[in-house]
């Protein structure tokens, strides 16, 4: 039998393989060394099942406490501080005939926290009698005479009994308190969109009339989640509003979120002594987890669909509660469970939460697209097949929206809301939060995007639920929704 000659290696190949083998050996030894060090650090606390469960509960309790104490807003400290100083200066020195500020941003972006911090600081520095703070919530106080009734009650409770004229009516009480020129008035209007939707926006008009007629130093500080809110103000209100509008950013920066998560999912030096023994191996394991691709993908998907603090809190809470510890006290996470939990959070809470926070105009555009989609699908069922996804351009959706609004016999949307630029802003936001999307790669620029067709991401049933619960949608849309169900 003839043996085949052994293939000779080219010059330098042997040395190259030797170098690779040597590096691999060193890396293996280093990895084993790290594992040995990690094990040796916790070998003296080898836990039985009962001890492991006890330590697990203590670590979870510690992490949940850190989560509750973490300051969470969409702003970093520098941005938050800068905006706080700007608004604080306006609150301290409002215009002689009134000032106005609107904070617009999604739920959990820090609007109310920012307002409360500023007002609390003002209260601690000012004499109580010279600062009148009236807090009104749109969901409770916006309807009818509710705002004036609540204003009367809060002002009355803030004054000594000797200064209160019991015979003064609610309508005149605000005027009677304006006799002291040194008094400042701050109206905090949360959920401002409810005040805007009221007929004639009469309460807002009365506030600014009060400031101008009495030359009173005051401020209206409003918060809302609806981006197109300012465009729905009546002209007589716009002429009195100074239009200082600040938009709070969404909670989308993955690096910022990772930084917050690292600070939460770590055992610090001030932790209870019962869990300090596993501090180093625990933190090392968490550091490796944050570098895992699966973890980062789950986090990015969550922030992309529900970019708000409340979704982040649910995600962090779910991750902590599903964590387990091994016998060495090292944390174990099933990333498939974490990813599944992230998906469930997006489906159960994220989308419906976004739908409920949409403005009237945004819901109307969605309804217009849904009507067009349903008509096209009905044609397809009758034999006119449609292989491509049912998609329509902004221009087609806008025309359908105008048609429906003009046919409505009752709509709270003002004439300004029909303008194309305002509708485009609402349309762009629907794209940003992914309630509609382009089926194919879109062109660059606004003109190209207006012509590019979009498809509806939500189901007609989900939109139907929003139309049913939304109190300010036109009757025409309500009738269409009822007809679609029949």
UniProtKB/TrEMBL annotation:
Gene Ontology process terms (BP): DNA replication initiation
SUPFAM superfamilies in UniProt: P-loop containing nucleoside triphosphate hydrolases (SSF52540)
Location in the cell: Nucleus
GO cellular component, one term: nuclear origin of replication recognition complex
Origin recognition complex subunit 4 C-terminal domain location: 260-466
Coiled-coil boundaries: none
Positions of the UniProt region annotated as Disordered: 1-33
Gene Ontology MF: a single term: DNA replication origin binding
Keyword DNA-binding belongs to the record: yes
Residue stretches of biased makeup (Basic residues): 16-26
Gene3D superfamilies: P-loop containing nucleotide triphosphate hydrolases (3.40.50.300)
Alphabetical keyword list: DNA replication, DNA-binding, Nucleus
Family: Belongs to the ORC4 family.
Name of the molecule in the record: Origin recognition complex subunit 4 C-terminal domain-containing protein
Organism: Galdieria yellowstonensis
């Amino acid at each position: 039998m003839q043996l085949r000659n052994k293939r000779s290696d080219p010059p330098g190949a042997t040395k190259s393989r030797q170098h690779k083998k040597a590096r691999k050996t060193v890396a293996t030894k280093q990895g084993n060394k790290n594992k040995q060090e990690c094990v040796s650090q916790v070998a003296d606390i080898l836990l039985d099942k009962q001890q492991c469960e006890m330590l697990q509960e203590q670590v979870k309790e510690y992490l949940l406490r850190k989560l509750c104490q973490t300051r969470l807003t969409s702003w970093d400290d520098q941005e938050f501080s800068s905006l706080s100083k700007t608004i604080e200066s306006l609150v301290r020195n409002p215009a002689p005939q009134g000032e106005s500020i609107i904070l617009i941003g999604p739920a959990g972006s820090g609007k109310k926290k920012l307002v409360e911090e500023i007002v609390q600081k003002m209260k601690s520095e000012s004499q109580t009698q010279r600062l009148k703070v009236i807090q009104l919530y749109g969901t409770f106080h916006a309807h009818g005479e509710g705002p004036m009734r609540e204003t009367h009650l809060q002002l009355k409770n803030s004054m000594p009994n000797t200064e209160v004229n019991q015979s003064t009516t609610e309508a005149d009480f605000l005027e009677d308190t304006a006799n002291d020129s040194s008094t400042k008035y701050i109206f905090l209007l949360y959920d401002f969109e409810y005040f805007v939707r009221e007929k004639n926006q009469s309460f807002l008009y009365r506030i600014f009339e009060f400031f101008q007629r009495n030359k009173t130093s005051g401020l209206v500080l409003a918060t809302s989640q609806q981006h197109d809110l300012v465009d729905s103000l009546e002209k007589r209100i716009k002429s009195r509003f100074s239009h200082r509008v600040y938009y709070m950013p969404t909670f989308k920066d993955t690096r910022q979120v990772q930084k917050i998560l690292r600070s939460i999912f770590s055992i610090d030096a001030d932790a209870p002594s019962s869990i300090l023994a596993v501090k180093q191996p625990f933190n090392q394991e968490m550091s490796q987890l944050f570098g895992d691709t699966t973890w980062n993908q789950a986090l990015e998907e969550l922030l992309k669909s529900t970019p708000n603090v409340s979704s982040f809190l649910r995600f962090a809470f779910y991750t902590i509660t599903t964590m387990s510890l091994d016998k060495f006290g090292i944390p174990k996470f099933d990333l498939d469970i974490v990813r599944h939990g992230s998906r469930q959070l997006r489906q159960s809470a994220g989308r419906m939460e976004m739908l409920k926070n949409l403005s009237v105009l945004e819901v109307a555009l969605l309804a217009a697209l849904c009507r067009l989609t349903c008509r096209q699908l009905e044609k397809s069922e009758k034999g006119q097949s449609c292989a491509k996804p049912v998609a329509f351009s902004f221009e087609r959706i806008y025309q359908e929206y105008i048609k429906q609004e003009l046919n409505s016999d009752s709509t709270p949307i003002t004439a300004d809301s029909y303008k194309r630029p305002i509708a485009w802003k609402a349309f762009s936001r629907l794209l940003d939060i992914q309630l509609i999307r382009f089926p194919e790669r879109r062109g660059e620029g606004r003109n190209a995007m207006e012509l590019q067709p979009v498809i509806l991401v939500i189901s007609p049933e989900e939109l139907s639920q929003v139309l049913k619960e939304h109190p300010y949608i036109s009757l025409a849309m309500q009738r269409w929704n009822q007809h679609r169900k029949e």
